[in-house]
Design goal:
TIM Barrel; single chain
Length: 288
């Protein structure tokens, strides 16, 4: 899914464009108000950087997705990540993923082999989290974990960005870590989603982290683990979509419990939703 244009920059640009330039395509009825951009990130016309990152029509995508529960289900990662999840609960998750045709069944690493046996031949991919939920795992460990999990059958990897290194200004280390996992994932035909944990980041850090992750090869920018101080917000989703443009997807996760929540995130620019309330959401649209 990763589709970086030839005109995009190599490496991380010194400065980012203004947020007005980064707004996803939306109609006025669904406009999202973003926080003011720090002066340090104001666009500098003297910097020779091309910011034509493509576009994503959030309003049209949302309208199409919300038109039918099956379309809605196809963009939801049906998720069970609580530490006390049991085998029976994982089995139920997989049964529901098949019944409603969710985008994937998202589980913790210990349950990937179980999910693989349950979902074999169904066409429903297995998603798994790595470096979760703190984003403080060694880069070598992340690569090993990713390789082991794709061999077990995982086809979507959601990794937490190294938050502490980002905040320390160690951007190249963050980029190298993501790139290493992206290479493993893509070599095995899997997708990579990078979790930014936006509730812990400043606006500048969100912009910087998004661009780093895209340059490193992520297929999706993801807002949250759901295990920190906050989850997805419309403003954060719009900001991430603004940076991504058409270069990668945006996954909203954390606190999405109803169809109204999902609608808000889709209209802000998400094209994937992470939720444990997936069945309740599609039932609001008419699923049995």
């Amino acid at each position: 899914m990763h589709n970086q244009s030839e005109s995009s920059t190599k490496g991380v640009p010194r400065r980012m464009p203004t947020l007005s330039h980064l707004q996803p395509t939306q109609d006025s009825a669904h406009a999202v108000t973003l926080p003011d951009l720090p002066a340090s990130l104001a666009f500098d016309p003297d910097v020779d950087v091309e910011y034509d990152n493509g576009s994503f029509d959030a309003a049209s995508f949302a309208a199409e997705t919300l038109s039918d529960w099956r379309r809605m289900a196809a963009v939801i990662d049906h998720t069970l990540l609580k530490p006390d999840a049991t085998r029976t609960q994982v089995e139920n998750l997989c049964d529901e993923a098949v019944r409603y045709r969710f985008a994937c069944a998202m589980v913790n690493p210990v349950w990937v082999s179980t999910a693989a046996s349950l979902l074999s031949g169904t066409g429903v991919p297995i998603g798994v989290v790595i470096g979760f939920p703190l984003g403080a795992t060694l880069a070598s460990t992340l690569r090993q974990e990713a390789a082991a999990l794709v061999r077990l059958g995982a086809r979507e990897l959601d990794m937490v960005l190294s938050i502490g290194q980002l905040k320390s200004g160690e951007h190249h280390a963050v980029e190298r870590t993501i790139r290493g996992v992206a290479e493993v994932a893509h070599h095995h035909g899997a997708l990579l989603k990078v979790i930014l944990e936006t509730c812990l980041l400043s606006v500048e850090e969100k912009l910087r982290a998004s661009e780093i992750a895209i340059q490193a090869g992520t297929d999706f920018l993801k807002t949250s683990t759901g295990f920190s101080s906050g989850g997805a917000t419309a403003a954060d989703v719009a900001l991430l979509r603004g940076v991504a443009g058409g270069r990668c997807g945006v996954k909203a996760s954390g606190g999405i419990r109803s169809l109204a929540d999902a609608r808000t995130m889709l209209e802000a620019g998400a094209n994937r939703i992470g939720a444990s309330a997936s069945v309740a959401i599609v039932r609001e649209l008419g699923a049995d």
